[in-house]
Amino acid sequence: MTHTNYLRIGRIEYTNAWPVFYHFADEIRNQQVELISKVPSELNRSLSEGRLDMSAVSSYAYGEGSSSYVLLPDLSVSSFGAVGSILLFMKKPLEEIRNGKIALTTASATSVNLLKIVMQKFLGGSPSYVSAAPDLEQMLKENDAALLIGDDAIRASWAELPYEVMDLGQAWRDFTGEGMTFAVWAVREAVTSRYPELVRGVNEAFQRSKERSMKDLSPVIEEAMKRIGGTASYWRSYFTGLQYDFGQSQWNGLQLYFRYAKELGLMNQDVHLRIWTDNTVVQVNS
């Protein structure tokens, strides 16, 4: 529950969101906030249940709760092509995988449903799915392919494994010509009404944090090398290959994702992007 002048904010644990969060604590200064780090699926649930006031969440989770949420402007985790950390590892050729058995990470609804769109709408397949812990070896014991996301996918991509790999960001671009937005910054709409100045201050701090990171990625890269491994060149390529803005290009790709999800019965409602700016909510139309 929100207390006066106090916001509980969800932070995605994965490195893909680090440039937005890295300098946030410095930039928020004396504002009263609490950052809570979890994987996307746990943040999604906490925001929907009101245990968070604001969070970086899976885009799919925003779609499910869009009637109660608004989006902070110009903040996302997106890619226009390869994302590098949402990967399908395949023991068999794709032609067989599309009607085979796929193990899914339970960590992100956006990626799971993106895979289902690719398999069903673009490849005409109908695979069977099973949820599993993010252990690639175990996932592939009884399945033909396995979906990993975030740092689990990155670590697996570094190993010399005998599997074909599909990058879902690249697959989405290949089939649609659009970019894909994997995470957005959502706020419970009631919170923006009750504490507009605090929300404004938090939004501005996120914007400054993002700008500082993209101006000089060195400290973010050093932290990633220390905590995850890998080389400086890998992380520089990874972070610069992602997009942290949320403008017309990202809106177009995300609205198409929501449209396909509804067409395939993966989402039961039309989704409109409702963006909060200076206590005004603007709806983005297709």
Automatic annotation (TrEMBL):
Enzyme Commission code(s) on record: 4.2.1.151
Pfam families: VitK2_biosynth
Claim: Lyase is one of the keywords in the record: yes
Alphabetic keyword roster: Lyase, Menaquinone biosynthesis
SUPFAM superfamilies assigned to the protein according to its UniProt record, in alphabetical order: Periplasmic binding protein-like II (SSF53850)
PANTHER family: CHORISMATE DEHYDRATASE
Record family assignment: Belongs to the MqnA/MqnD family. MqnA subfamily.
Name by which UniProt lists this protein: Chorismate dehydratase
Organism of provenance: Paenibacillus gansuensis
Gene that specifies this protein: mqnA
